[in-house]
Amino acid sequence: MTNATGAPLKHLAIVMDGNGRWAEKKNKNRLFGHVKGTKVAKQIIEECSRLKIENLTLYAFSTENWHRPRVEVSFLMKLLTKYLHRERENLIKNNIRFECIGQLDRLPGAAIVEINKTVELTKHNTGMKLFFALSYGGRQEIVNAAKLFAKDVQLGMRRTEELTEELFSSYLSTYPTPDPDLVIRTSGEMRLSNFLPWQLVYSEIYFSQILWPDFTVADLHQALHNYNHRERRFGKTSSQILQDRI
Ligand code: FPP
Q: pTM of the predicted model, to two decimals?
C-alpha cells in the first residue's frame, strides 16, 4: 500500500484510548468500556488484514497501566486471556501472524500460556503481522537495547565505534519490522505515552476525537484517507521528493 504522494504504509500503529471515559459517560463501570474496546479491536484487526496492511501494532497495555486499580488490571488481563483463547481460530482463518512486544514476564501465567499458544499456532501464517504491545514501555525498551548492545561489546562481538541507528534498531523488540508509517490515537488525547518513541520519530500522527469503543471501520478508513494525502518529506523539500519519485 502506498499513498497519493508515493509513501508506503507498511506499518500502522494504534493507541486505543478512551475506554474508561466512554463507559463513565454512560454511567457504567470502566470495565464495560474495555469489553466494548476489545470488540472494536477485533473489527479493526480484521479490516486491516482485509486491507492487506502488512503490520499492525496495538498498544493494549503499557508499563504505566500496572499502576491502575488492581481490579482493573486483573480484569484487563482476563479479557486479554479470553480474547486470545476465543480469537485464535479467527486469526488462523485470516492468515494473521500474532506476536507481542513488551515485558511479558510480568503478565499472569494464564495470559502467557494463551500468548505462547497463539504465537506458536500462527507463526507460519503469511498475511498481516499483528503485534500486541503488552506491558510495553518505550524508554524501557531503549534502555534494554542499550544493555544488550553493551553486553555484545563486553563479549567482543561488537565494537562501540560500529554503532549506528540501524544497528541500534536491531536490538529493539520491534526488529525487523519497519517503523510505523502512521500512528492513530483515539479519544482526543494528543501525546504518545511512551509508545514506540524510537520507532515513531518520522511517523505521521493522526489524532481522532472519537473514543476507542466508538471507533469504527469507517473511522479507520478516514484516518487512512488522511494519511493518503500526507506528503512525507523526511527532512527533504517537496521538489526533492517529487524528483525522487521520477
Ligand atoms: C485505554 O483506555 C485502553 C487501555 C488501557 C487498554 C486497551 C485495551 C483494550 C482496547 C481492550 C483490550 C484489548 C484486547 C485486544 C484484549 P483507558 O482505560 O485509558 O480510557 P480512559 O483514558 O478514558 O480512561
A: 0.95
Per-residue confidence at 51, pLDDT binned at 50, 70, 90? very high
Nearest-atom number in ligand 1 for the CA of 41 is 15
Which atom of ligand 1 lies closest to the CA of 83? 16
DSSP characters for the chain? Answer: -B-TTS-B--EEEEE---HHHHHHHTT--HHHHHHHHHHHHHHHHHHHHHTT-SEEEEEEEEGGGGGS-HHHHHHHHHHHHHHHHHHHHHHHHTTPEEEEES-GGGS-HHHHHHHHHHHHHHTT--S-EEEEEEEE-HHHHHHHHHHHHHHHHHTTS--GGG--HHHHHTTSTTTTSPPPSEEEE-TT----TTSSTTTTTT-EEEE--S-GGG--HHHHHHHHHHHHT----TTS-HHHHHHHH-
Question: Where do the domains of the chain lie?
Answer: 11-136+182-245
Which is catalytic among the residues 3, 29, 65, 125?
65
Domain spanning 11-136+182-245, CATH class: alpha beta
> Residue 174 above 90 pLDDT?
yes
Q: What is the pLDDT of residue 231?
A: 83
Instruction: State in Å: Cα 61 to ligand 1 middle.
Output: 7
17 is catalytic: yes
Q: Which of 14, 16, 65 to mutate to test the pocket of ligand 1 (most atoms within 8 A of CB)?
A: 16
Question: Annotated catalytic, 94?
Answer: no
